[in-house]
Amino acid sequence: MAEHTSSSITIEATPADVMGVIADFARYPDWTGEVKEAEVLATDAQGRAQQVRLLLDAGAIKDDHTLAYTWTGDNEVSWTLVKSQMLRAIDGSYSLKAVDGGSRTEVTYQLTVDVKIPMLGMIKRKAEKVIIDRALAGLKKRVESGPKA
Question: What's the pTM value of the predicted model, to 2 decimals?
Answer without folding.
Answer: 0.85
